[in-house]
């Protein structure tokens, strides 16, 4: 491989005015097609075979169409109305304003008018919930699902909910005008003094990156590269490749929306991966090119050697990332599959631009690339073994006391990992949106009026087809009593039977919110009780609704982590055996990753779940799909640093250095570029904490933390310590395995032989002439 990349690097450098126009045409073509054919992305997080789907099936069988509201792409809307302070909604002026809102909704074009809307106060009157003893048991049972908060002992009749069916087909079909119309229809009621907020998918906009994070990340990367290269012009090259690589990858993803449904989170993940990897890979190759300029006969030769050596490492570093991201498809969750594929596309383009566009750009900038040189910045050449750099000082310190540095790195990572022991998972719901959004205001107003559990009502669907007709009412009553008996259940509504009484449904309202662990435990306990009722009555039931779906997704994703990690790590382990021609080096690389991953989870739990250090205003469970995505992404990046740093150590060992000296020299050569690459990734990922979306914030932080722990504690302390302690055994490989594993020549030994043959040929030609 190194020979092919060497020859391509020379060709692209010399034929830059062929390569560059080809890339310009490709970039414009992909961008134009993506913009012209792009269709709206999906916010669907649907997962097959969830227990909640069984409840939907029972609902559809006995109450046709009832399950539509519980699908991820369903168009839902709930108006939450609050009375002015010190008043009640039943007061004449407030009731008149509420009547006006209902009339306007009944005339709104986007509302499904199959059944006229009834205002919440009138509905509560029809249920007999505005009179009588409000603490009597029969009143509580009858009015527990009233749309007016008649049961609130502190603020009765002050908050109402109005569920509105919309005629829009699915979430992706909602337009900005639809959202505006649904919100503005309540302006007259607001002007009359009512608080009217709107929740549900009709009020939610698809979350897209704002672009600020990418710009801040690019700016920081530019500064780091100026420091790394000691020149301004060279710092532009990785920025150009990052823009081209990310632009091409994003355009291809947009193009994919024309033929398939693509989750909206795909572009966010591709942005993080595309920017970081494109810059890192370009940084690695340009750094090697800078050194080769001082030892090769020509800039074209320097570009060829840089691509043949550093480019080979980039290929295999990129492959580990792609393996980890494509491996997300084994989880069997559609939106995770597409997010992984989107990230893999971005990683593939990062490798592609580094190998094809990069040498042409080096040729285009020519002798100006490392000018103007900046004083006091990057004066030492880490490729020069006669210079003592900070990397060499750190390596020598590790070489002197490897046991101490090994123990310290493990202890530090272990302490940071401790909070991960109480990791809780949850999906970003209405309570995770910015406090300024109408959806979040509706959530808080509903919580104030009806309790937190009203935002995540459990829908219980009962199949009575196998229950004796004379026992059906008793069976449903027994089930209600069982659910009411749980301490975490606030109340349970009266049952509604299907016309043939072969099915029933009712609602259970927890005391806690949809993402609270107590609520999820309640769902699990309620489901576990089914066997008791099945054996006694022959009755089957299921539980659905937001809370139940959240709990199901958490359980599924948590159960996929171990098999996913095993498959991805196994595939990467085999790849790294070929890269390093060693057993212990890939093994220690994987074990080191487990430590950095544990520390990453610990830090993320401490800040986003436990609320330490006051970084987030509202601590909440970790997003349920984050752990498995984090494993895939950080594993790929971890192997990047392993390849970047340890291939240089192997190169020194192969060329005859003792194991300890090979580690020190390889560390000396690779420390600056790995440090720069890690710093760029940390800031690129960390800059996503500027996004208002909590998913972006927590994912950005977790990725930044993962890179920090893995690059600076594992790859630059723990692994070098182990290499010194293992000595020559670090590079041992059984003879039988050595014969099987292909020699891919990441060190560029065959490349040097080609150079020597070509130089000898030129000398013979010169002698003859």
TrEMBL record:
Q: Give the stretches traversing the membrane.
A: 215-237, 265-284, 305-332, 338-365, 401-421, 561-580, 587-609, 621-641, 670-689, 701-725
SUPFAM superfamilies for this protein: Multidrug efflux transporter AcrB transmembrane domain
Q: Which UniProt keywords apply?
A: Cell membrane, Membrane, Transmembrane, Transmembrane helix
Pfam families, per this entry?
MMPL
Q: Where is the SSD domain?
A: 231-364
An example Gene Ontology CC term for this record: plasma membrane
Membrane topology designation:
Multi-pass membrane protein
The answer, when asked if Lipid metabolism is one of the entry's keywords, is no
Q: Where in the cell is it found?
A: Cell membrane
| Predominant place of localization | membrane
Establish whether keyword DNA damage is in the entry. Answer: no
Know the name of this protein? MMPL family transporter
Organism, scientific name? Nocardia yunnanensis
Organism lineage: Bacteria, Bacillati, Actinomycetota, Actinomycetes, Mycobacteriales
């Amino acid at each position: 491989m190194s020979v092919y990349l060497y020859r391509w690097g020379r060709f692209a450098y010399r034929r830059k005015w062929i390569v560059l126009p080809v890339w310009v045409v490709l970039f414009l073509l992909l961008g134009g097609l993506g913009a012209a054919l792009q269709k709206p992305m999906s916010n669907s997080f649907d997962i097959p075979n969830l227990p909640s789907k069984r409840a939907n099936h029972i609902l559809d069988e006995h109450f046709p169409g009832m399950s539509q509201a519980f699908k991820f792409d369903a168009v839902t809307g709930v108006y939450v109305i609050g009375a002015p302070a010190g008043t009640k909604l039943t007061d004449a002026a407030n009731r008149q304003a509420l009547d006006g809102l209902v009339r306007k909704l009944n005339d709104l074009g986007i509302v499904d008018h199959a059944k006229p809307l009834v205002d919440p106060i009138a509905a509560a009157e029809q249920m007999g919930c505005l009179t009588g003893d409000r603490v009597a048991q029969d009143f509580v049972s009858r009015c527990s699902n009233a749309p007016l908060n008649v049961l609130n002992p502190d603020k009765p009749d002050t908050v109402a909910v109005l569920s509105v069916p919309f005629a829009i087909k699915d979430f992706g079909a909602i337009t900005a005008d639809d959202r505006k119309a649904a919100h503005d229809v309540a302006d007259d009621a607001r002007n009359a003094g009512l608080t009217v907020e709107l929740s549900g998918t009709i009020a939610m906009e698809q979350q897209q990156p704002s672009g600020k994070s990418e710009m801040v990340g690019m700016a920081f990367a530019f500064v780091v590269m100026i420091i790394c290269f000691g020149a301004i012009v060279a710092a532009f090259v990785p920025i150009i490749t990052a823009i081209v690589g990310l632009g091409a990858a994003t355009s291809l993803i947009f193009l994919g929306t024309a033929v398939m449904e693509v989750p909206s989170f795909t572009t966010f993940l591709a942005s993080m991966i595309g920017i970081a990897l494109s810059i890192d890979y370009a940084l690695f190759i340009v750094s090697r090119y800078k050194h080769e300029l001082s030892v090769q006969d020509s800039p074209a030769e320097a570009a060829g050697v840089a691509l043949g050596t550093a480019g080979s490492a980039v290929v295999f570093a990129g492959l580990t990332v792609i393996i980890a991201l494509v491996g997300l498809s084994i989880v069997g969750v559609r939106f995770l599959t597409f997010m992984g594929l989107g990230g893999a596309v971005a990683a593939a383009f990062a490798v592609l631009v580094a190998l094809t566009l990069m040498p042409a750009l080096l040729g285009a900038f020519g002798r100006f690339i490392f000018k103007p040189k900046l004083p006091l910045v990057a004066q030492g050449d880490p490729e020069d073994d006669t210079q003592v750099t900070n990397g060499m000082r750190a390596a020598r310190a590790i070489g002197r006391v490897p046991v101490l540095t090994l123990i310290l790195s493990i202890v530090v990572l272990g302490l940071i990992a401790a909070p991960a022991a109480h990791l809780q998972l949850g999906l970003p719901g209405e309570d995770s949106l910015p406090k300024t959004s109408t959806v979040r205001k509706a959530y808080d107003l509903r919580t104030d009026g009806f309790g937190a559990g009203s935002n995540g009502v459990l829908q219980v669907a009962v199949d009575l087809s196998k229950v004796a007709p004379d026992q059906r009412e008793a069976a449903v009553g027994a089930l209600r009593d069982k659910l009411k008996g749980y301490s975490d259940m606030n109340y349970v509504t009266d049952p509604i039977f299907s016309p043939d009484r072969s099915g029933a449904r009712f609602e259970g309202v927890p005391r806690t919110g949809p993402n609270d662990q107590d609520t999820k435990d309640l769902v699990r306990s309620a489901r576990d009780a089914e066997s008791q009722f099945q054996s006694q009555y022959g009755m089957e039931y299921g539980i659905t609704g937001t809370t139940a779906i959240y709990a199901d997704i958490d359980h599924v994703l948590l159960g996929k982590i171990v098999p996913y990690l095993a498959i991805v790590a196994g595939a990467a382990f085999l790849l790294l055996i070929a890269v390093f021609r060693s057993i212990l080096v890939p093994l220690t690389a994987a074990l080191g990753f487990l430590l950095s991953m544990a520390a990453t989870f610990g830090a993320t739990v401490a800040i986003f779940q436990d609320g330490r250090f006051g970084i987030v205003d509202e601590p909440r469970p970790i997003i349920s799909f984050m752990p498995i995505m984090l494993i895939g992404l950080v594993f790929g990046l971890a192997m990047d640093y392993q390849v970047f740093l340890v291939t240089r150590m192997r190169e020194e060992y192969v060329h005859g250095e003792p194991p300890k000296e090979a580690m020190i020299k390889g560390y000396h050569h690779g420390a600056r570029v790995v440090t720069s690459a890690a710093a760029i990734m940390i800031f690129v990922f960390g800059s996503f904490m500027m996004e208002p979306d909590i998913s972006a914030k927590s994912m950005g932080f977790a990725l930044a933390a993962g890179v920090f722990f893995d690059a600076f504690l594992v790859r630059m302390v723990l692994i070098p310590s182990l290499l010194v302690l293992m000595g020559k055994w670090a590079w041992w490989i059984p003879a039988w395995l050595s014969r099987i594993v292909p020699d891919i020549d990441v060190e560029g030994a065959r490349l040097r032989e080609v150079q020597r043959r070509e130089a000898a040929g030129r000398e013979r030609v010169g002698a003859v002439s």
